[in-house]
Amino acid sequence: MAEARTMFIVMRKDLVKFREDERVKTYLSDVDGMHKVVLETKNEASLFKVADSLKQQDIPFYLWVEQPENTPTCLATIPVMRSDLGDALKKCSLLR
């Protein structure tokens, strides 16, 4: 079987926006139990709909905006239990 091409995202731990939140502290303290899911959405409008859904569920997130283009490209939620998401990400699918 051929080796799959993989995209890696590298983030500085000291710059995590919500690092003082207890949910983030718990997540970061369990290196072996960390889980990440990369989802896709169709376009900018659908990304903003996801953001609105997260706001309605009171789930903190960070929206990345590329500069100098001022283009929203992705968002990341605070580490949460899947059950807390409700329907906020129901229209997203796994990035393939």
Automatic annotation (TrEMBL):
Keyword ATP-binding attributed: no
Catalytic activity: an N-acyl-L-alpha-aminoacyl-tRNA + H2O = an N-acyl-L-amino acid + a tRNA + H(+)
Domain of life, source organism: Eukaryota
Keywords: Hydrolase
Enzyme class: hydrolase
Pfam families assigned: PTH2 (PF01981)
EC number(s) from the headed UniProt entry: 3.1.1.29
Record-level Gene Ontology MF annotations: peptidyl-tRNA hydrolase activity
Gene3D superfamilies attached to this UniProt entry: Bit1
Protein name: peptidyl-tRNA hydrolase
Native organism: Coemansia pectinata
